[in-house]
Amino acid sequence: MKKTIVIISVAALLYACGGGETKPADTGGETKAAAATDPDVEKGLALVGQSDCVGCHKVLEPNVGPAHAEVAKKYENTEANINMLADKIMNGGSGNWGTVPMAAHPGISKADAVLMAKYVLSLKDAK
Ligand code: HEC
After folding, report:
1. For residue range 54-96, what is the model confidence (pLDDT) as tens digits?
2. CA 102 to ligand 1 center in whole angstroms
3. Is 125 near ligand 1, meaning CB less than 6 Å away?
4. Where would a tag sit more exposed on the chain, N or C end, judged by fewer CB atoms within 10 A?
5. Contacts of 101 (CB under 8 A, 6+ apart)
6. Could you tell me the residue ranges of all domains in the chain?
7. What's the pTM value of the predicted model, to 2 decimals?
8. How many helices and strands (H and E) does the chain possess?
9. Are the C-beta atoms of 83 and 115 separated by less than 8 Å?
């Protein structure tokens, strides 16, 4: 509960400070951390925006799935974690955040899933 309040206030703060900045329409509300300059992260953001991810994930607030920024805080940005999350994006799964399962994405290639995982882990400092 406390966590929810913190997340909401962070989101409110972001809204208040970030005023006027429009998010690219093609990313379905996903956004990148300001510091993201890695071209893989840019590609990952675009891929996430084109897929169904945004139906279940928001950047800062939990939705059906955990906020992508929370995922980034949970896992260190390492090669091993990028691989692990890429597999999770392709195969789906449950149990790490609750009982709701994440849908499998059989149509996503490993290469694309890796880009998406890099993007998600880049959100560590997203506020
Ligand atoms: C049908 C809803 C749904 C869709 C669509 C969805 N997710 Fe998820 N996602 C979830 C849920 C629920 C979880 C939490 C699963 C768990 O508890 O292990 C999750 C977890 C995750 C995690 C963390 C995995 C872990 O092991 O901690 C990542 C990363 C992720 N999703 C990325 C994506 C990406 C990228 C897409 C688009 C290709 C996507 N999700 C589409 C519901 C969804």
Report:
1. 999 999 999 999 999 999 999 999 999 999 999 999 999 999 9
2. 5
3. no
4. N
5. 92, 93, 94
6. 2-125
7. 0.80
8. 5, 0
9. no
